[in-house]
Design a protein that fits this description.
The chain has 3 helices and no strands. It is mainly alpha-helical.
Length: about 130
């Protein structure tokens, strides 16, 4: 049997999540997506550095020994840079589309987003 205390215990976190979703979607999403785009760009750059560092060390050692780099070294570096460029482009495209969509979101859209957050929380806690 469900008591009033059980209902309040289930509704209070749902209301807090709903208000937080509304505020996030209405006023904070655009700036957060802008900062996320910069952060994702930095993350891709760090990944590229991690992928290029062994090739750099190998090429440097190869030049000390033979005076020239291995022929595949430049191909590997070009492939990594091409994949990184594609990653930058994909991240930029997706996040700019999300930023534009969040910028066009009005009070009703943010309210629906908050209600969906409440529904998801209540659905997940349903016995």
């Amino acid at each position: 049997m469900t008591t009033t205390a059980d209902v309040v215990r289930a509704l209070m976190p749902a209301l807090i999540v709903g208000v937080a979703c509304y505020v996030l979607l209405r006023w904070a999403a655009v700036s957060l997506l802008t900062h996320l785009e910069t952060g994702m760009e930095y993350a891709v750059n760090v990944l590229v550095i991690g992928l290029l560092l062994p090739e750099y060390c190998w090429t440097r050692a190869q030049r000390r020994v033979s005076g020239h780099a291995a022929p595949f070294a430049y191909t590997y570096g070009d492939a990594v840079c091409t994949v990184a460029s594609a990653g930058h482009h994909c991240v930029s495209t997706v996040l700019s589309a999300l930023r534009e969509a969040a910028g066009r979101l009005g009070h009703r859209g943010a309210l629906w987003g908050g209600l969906m957050g409440v529904g998801a929380l209540l659905w997940s806690s349903w016995p």
